[in-house]
């Protein structure tokens, strides 16, 4: 029995109790949850439903809990129910009901853990969005790992998700990039405000190979060639490195398209219609202070140029016009000040900024080797890049390490730790458990031990303390996935795999013999334990897949 199934049993029991007492059963919630008690001695699961209903139906909580306990005790699979404190219900399942979960997981396979919790919600998830003036640096790589994991989690809970990379190919940064390429092609020093590093010379040389006539043009025309060709080459490299990291976007959105399609004018018109635009000092402003911003924002300068904020407004409106109910944007630590203005901007459009716009801020990441921070890339000169991180510890370790911590916490990634083939390396620890379950299955096949038909599975035999502990851990997976998606916290999945599944499986493996020794007869208990072993394999693989990490069968 899964926690969700038990929760349905609890609701059904509550409905029966209220009906029997002549009370209003319409006060029952659409769904309830059961949780694992902190102290395992208190039972397998706990419910607070009696406390929740008490005031609504005018019955003391312990009195209501007593009736619920009696009704629940009649339910198939429920071994016992005890009342604790003011009206908590501590529920114990019989071994057969608990063990049935192993079959549910194995038969569910890749679908185990999925739900419809967020069904009907259309989410636009934008992350990374590094300007095409250089590589994806280590801070952006954090969002690549976390954002991709979050998209997988949201989809696993039923949301309709569109992932998006905002491709900024307009503005002063691009102009500086083009001037830097032109200077490199001429053999001149980089402009004072330009970009340096071996990659600039490489891209400049590639542009010259494509357009041999470029240096015969006047500087303005040559700079435009380097802008168009250089940005395309840099962005191709960014896309390639992200693809190698396992991250592909549904949409690569070009900022220039906003300008070319007149979407900034459209956004300005919409904002005027809402009554929040005003003119002052020859410029066009948005009165964001009406919605909590610290100052009003310029949309169009007195010289007629659009501001970056105007493009932000147009881009947000474009996403909403494409039918996305919620716009989620992941930004680096240096963008914390954007939250107020962006929330105010959404309100200026008439949206609810708490429902329609969500901004996540990620903190800094350092790569550490031999106890000291790695300061720069050999090729790019000023930053640690995605390639540097992957070269140092590999894709799996990099993705797991970046997704393992809450995004609002700075992290140090220790090269020595994340490349060790030992249990203190978190990704190795989890992958090793997955590989061990696969190894057990191979060894079982070699001696002729098979799970057998599902109809012959005897879950009641899984009554050992360590079997029960592992079953409880595996049962939590759907709730962990749903919570991680709703709270935008993929690290919950990683910590669950380490601290609940991997640890519980090790204790199960050490205490419960799966494969018979020597001439020992194969029994239904061996087969039941093989079901549990294979269920663990499913959960490990499903959890790692949500993080974009492989689950090798051999290590």
Please describe what this structure looks like.
By secondary structure, the chain is α/β, with parallel strands linked by helices. It contains 21 helices and 14 strands. The protein has a five-stranded parallel β-sheet with strand order 6-5-4-10-11, with helices on both faces. The protein has a three-stranded antiparallel β-sheet with strand order 1-3-2. The protein has a three-stranded antiparallel β-sheet with strand order 7-8-9. Helix 4 crosses helix 21 (524-546) and helix 5 packs across helix 15 (395-403). The longest helix has 26 residues, at 219-244. The mean pLDDT is 92.
| Shape designation | flat
Question: Which range best describes the helical content: under 10%, 10-25%, 25-40%, 40-55%, 55-70% or over 70%?
Answer: 40-55%
Question: Which strand-content bin applies to the residues?
Answer: 5-15%
Question: What is the number of strand segments?
Answer: 14
Largest sheet: 5 strands, parallel
**How does the helix and strand content classify structurally?**
alpha/beta
N- to C-terminal distance: 33 Å
Task: Kindly report the spatial arrangement of strands forming the biggest sheet.
Answer: 6-5-4-10-11
Q: What is the arithmetic mean of pLDDT?
A: 92
What is the count of helical runs?
A: 21
What ranges have pLDDT less than 50 throughout 5 or more consecutive residues? none
Could you tell me the radius of gyration in angstroms? Answer: 29 Å
């Amino acid at each position: 029995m899964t926690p969700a199934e038990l929760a349905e049993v609890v609701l059904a029991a509550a409905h029966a109790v209220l009906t029997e007492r002549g009370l209003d059963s319409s006060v029952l919630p659409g769904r309830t949850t059961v949780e694992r008690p902190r102290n395992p001695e208190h039972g397998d699961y706990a419910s607070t439903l009696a406390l929740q209903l008490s005031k609504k139906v005018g019955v003391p909580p312990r009195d209501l809990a007593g009736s619920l306990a009696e009704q629940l005790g009649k339910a198939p699979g429920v071994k016992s129910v005890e009342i604790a404190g003011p009206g908590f219900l501590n529920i114990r399942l019989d071994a057969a009901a608990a063990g049935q979960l192993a079959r549910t997981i194995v038969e569910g396979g890749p679908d185990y853990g999925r739900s419809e919790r967020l069904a009907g919600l259309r989410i636009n998830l934008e992350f990374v969005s590094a300007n095409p003036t250089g590589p994806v640096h280590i801070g952006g790589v954090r969002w690549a790992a976390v954002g991709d994991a979050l998209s997988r989690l949201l989809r696993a809970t039923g949301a309709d998700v569109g992932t998006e990379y905002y491709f900024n190919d307009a503005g002063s940064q691009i102009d500086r990039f083009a001037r830097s390429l032109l200077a490199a092609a001429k053999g001149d020093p980089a402009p004072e405000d330009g970009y340096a590093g071996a990659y600039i010379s490489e891209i400049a040389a590639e542009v010259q190979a494509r357009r041999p006539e470029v240096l015969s043009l006047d500087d303005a025309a040559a700079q435009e060639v380097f802008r168009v060709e250089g940005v395309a080459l840099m962005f191709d490299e960014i896309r390639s490195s992200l693809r190698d990291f396992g991250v592909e976007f549904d949409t690569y959105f070009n900022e220039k398209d906003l300008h070319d399609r007149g979407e900034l004018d459209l956004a300005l018109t919409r904002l005027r219609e809402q009554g929040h635009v005003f003119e002052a000092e020859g410029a066009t402003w948005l009165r964001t202070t009406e919605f909590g911003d610290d100052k009003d924002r310029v949309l169009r300068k007195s010289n007629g140029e659009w501001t970056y904020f105007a493009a932000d407004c147009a881009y947000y409106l474009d996403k909403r016009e494409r039918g996305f109910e919620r716009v989620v944007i992941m930004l680096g630590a240096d963008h914390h000040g954007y939250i107020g203005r962006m929330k105010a901007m959404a309100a200026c459009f008439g949206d609810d900024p708490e429902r329609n716009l969500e901004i996540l801020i990620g903190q800094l990441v350092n790569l550490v080797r031999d106890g000291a921070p790695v300061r720069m890339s050999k090729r790019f000169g000023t930053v640690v890049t995605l390639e540097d991180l992957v070269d140092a510890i590999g894709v799996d370790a990099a993705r797991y390490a970046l997704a393992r911590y809450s995004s609002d916490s700075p992290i140090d990634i220790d090269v020595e730790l994340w490349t060790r083939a030992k249990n203190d390396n978190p990704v190795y620890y989890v992958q090793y458990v997955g590989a061990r379950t696969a190894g057990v299955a191979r060894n079982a096949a070699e001696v002729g031990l098979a799970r057998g038909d599902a109809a012959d599975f005897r879950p009641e035999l899984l009554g050992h303390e360590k079997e029960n502990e592992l079953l409880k851990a595996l049962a939590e997976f759907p709730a962990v996935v749903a919570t991680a998606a709703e709270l935008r916290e993929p690290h919950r999945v990683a910590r669950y795999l380490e601290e609940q599944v991997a640890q519980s499986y090790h204790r199960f493996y050490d205490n419960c013999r799966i494969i018979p020794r020597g001439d020992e007869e194969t029994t239904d208990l061996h087969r039941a334990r093989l079901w549990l072993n294979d269920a663990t394999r499913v959960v490990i693989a499903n959890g790692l897949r949500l993080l974009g990490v492989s689950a090798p069968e051999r290590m």
